Amino acid sequence: APFSVEYHDSVANTNELARERAVDGATNLAVLADEQTGGRGRLEREWSSPPGGVWVSLVTRPAIAPSQAPLYTLAAAVSATRVAREAGVDARIKWPNDVVIPEGEDGDYRKLAGVLTEMEGETDRIEWLVVGIGINANVDADVLPEEATSVREEAGDVDRRRFVQRLIEEFDRLRGTVDEIVPAWRELTLTLGQRVRVDRPAGEVVGEAVNVTESGALVVETEDGRETVSAGDCEHLRP
Ligand code: BTN
Q: Which atom of ligand 1 lies closest to the CA of 98?
């Protein structure tokens, strides 16, 4: 089923609004805003959301186990990366779901988009899932954080309506073909083959990122063997 779109000029936070809609029973709903005044990123970070960006939260009620939810986050990152590439930007994915532009040969990159997923449910069943996607689209890079960039900066403005429509289309298609998500993610990632440091609650893991599992966890070859990391903050280290 396609998504219907609820549009706002300015809201505090589309994920919060989407959560309210989800609690009220909504599904296949995209809550979209031109600007967020209280945007949030992963790990409670602020997410700068000036007018002209794409700030959207997708409400779904998938018939999957909560352990499968990361797949939807990967699907969102793949969708955002694809539409950015269609707009002429050399976007790639940094594990797990940062959309970045590689800059120069020293392994640096600038962030273009991110995904923040929230869910509600029991251990065996998801009640609802809110997948928040933020893309710095028609935004001046100088109003964004230092390490960020925008589609405007990299390739020029997009037709925002069309861009959002394509984003939702891609996500809608991928959620119907879940087997395609991880392979599509692999094609677009910068992380595999890199030396990485992943910060996670259980401690940090340093080594070469050698694989990603069927549920999107990162496999890191460390000095003491292989570790599979399902969540954390990943930094690419210089070779
Ligand atoms: C990250 O990379 O830290 C995730 C960023 C997620 C941003 C999106 S924009 C739409 C939704 N509303 C928010 O406040 N956050 C997500």
A: 2
Region 4-188: CATH code: 3.30.930.10
> Each residue of 144-180: pLDDT tens digit?
999 999 999 999 999 999 999 999 999 999 999 999 9
- pTM of the predicted structure, to 2 decimals: 0.95
Which residues in 193-208 are b (16+ Cβ under 10 Å) and which e? Answer: ebbbebeeeeeebebe
Which CATH code fits 195-236? Answer: 2.30.30.100
Domain ranges of the chain: 4-188, 195-236
Has the ipTM of the complex gone over 0.95?
A: yes
Compute, in angstroms, the gap from residue 116 CA to the centroid of ligand 1.
Answer: 5
Q: Determine if ligand 1 sits within 6 Å of the CB of residue 194.
A: no
Give 239 Cα–ligand 1 centroid separation in angstroms: 30
- From CA 134, how far away is CA 194, in angstroms rounded? 25
